[in-house]
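Recall the central idea of this unit: under ordinary conditions, the amino acid sequence of a chain determines the structure it adopts. In this exercise we apply that idea directly, starting from the sequence alone.
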Amino acid sequence: ESATTPTAPAVTVNGLWDFTASAATPALGYLCVDSGSMALTQQGALVTGLIEFVRTCGMSGSATISTSHQLDSISGSLAGRVLTVQLRSASGGLVLCSDTLTLIPDNAILAGVSFCGTQRMNRSAEPGASIVFASMQPDTVALLTGGGARVTADFRTMTGRRAFLRPVVWSVGNASVASVNAAGDVLALGAGVTTVSATSGGKVAFAIITVPAPAGLVQVGAGNARTCALGSVGDAWCWGVPVAGSPGGSSPHLVGGGLSFVELAVGADHSCARTAANVTWCWGSGALGQLGTGLMSDATTPQQVQGGLSFVSLTAGGDHTCGLIANGTAYCWGADSLGQLGDHGSGISSTPVAVSGGLTFTALSAGPRHTCGIATGGALYCWGENLMGQLGDSTTLARDVPVLVRGGLTWASVSAGFWRTCALTTAGAAYCWGSIGFGGALGTGNVSELIPAPVLGGHVFTSITTGGNQSCALDAAHAAWCWGVNSFGQVGIGTSGAAVTSPALVAGGLTFTSISAGAYNYSDEAINGGTAAHTCAVTVAGSTWCWGVNNVGQVGNGTTGFAGVNAPAKVVGQP
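Accordingly, the structure predicted from this sequence is:
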């Protein structure tokens, strides 16, 4: 009887694989790591499939710099135990990476190299394993009725690899409070608390969704491409472009930390607020020390300002922040490239420093790179950048200490904007000075003013705000008037296009108690269009409305669109 030679098992890579891949740039100390899954289908030598992963990059030994999620397609072939494939964008177009992986005996591991452009990555995969860990990010979400947010389920194997390309079932505990779709998009439907769950491989990830009863947002501040506001119980909410990892979107998201505030100051990309005990907290972009924490780093939730000072009022600008203590002494912190901190410095201070000159102030306003303050007695001083004459001292010289604004007027309020400043006298007359070079932004009939010039129309106003390229004011009847560039409807008159060269009544017939024009930040110009071209206001009835550019949801009405909203639109969840 003859012996039979055993047949070698066929080599196959068919099925689900979980992998990690890493690439380092040693000279820079920069490291990227991918963690995810591949679902491969093999027909003969031809291999196709999908690859889904999260890439995390950062400097060695430091916090994460960036995180991205990718879903790509795979195509290639298997020759012996060598798998050669290309990773393409999900649409099947651009080649992103080329892999050469070897199947280790017993079909246990696929390992090899991946070339992504000029970057080499070492990739190692094992057959899809059971899910052992499950979590949700974020795991708590607060939304106003009608608002939305995306939650992400994170499933992992015993080795810590991300487990993708498995069936996931989404569900919600109370369908009257919120709904969720297969992408993890949550929509707030009514007041209450519920859970949103994602189940895969027998493991459940969940988030707690809280939808408070309808309540007005009673203070609002417009930033560069974002907006923040305070609720009636001191809760802080933000919307628009995500900043420093904080939630964005076209409807309000609750700021974490569980704090209650009495005043909010919104800068271009950071916000600060103080509690009833006059303790100040800041969050958002912090690379130039504008959060005042002693660090030059971002914060997704409020962090306490260092120095032990008790501020009674706050103002936030482009990359700096200022505040007053009870005796009228002014302090500033953050960027100081053009003297905007007013302390004779020329660098960065990540903690509050006193403004030089021995003056005491009753009000402050921080602009993109300059600051102004009304001194005790009503004189107005400004300091910082003066390229367009925004300091009002009849020159274009930058100043690193306060200089007196010319004109001999007595002032009641001031607002520092992009390359210009506007203020109200004690009689309610509006004056503006500086220049943005076009668009009638001053409202004075001239493109440029080196000292205060009266705004056209002879109006009497009670408050004024100056943003990136528009200015607005409220009169004694609480009507809103705006002027300036109107490319995106930021003047709010129901049309967009040509500049509005003198105060025009905002459309809609609403009456307001406060108004805020978007704060400009030079460093954001390439990223967010640098527009600061939206305006928000709180009505007498206690609800928040916005108008203007809405490319990243900064109007907060649940929509996005770069064309803008040219008349007041109610923010999601407002009564």
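The mean pLDDT is 91.
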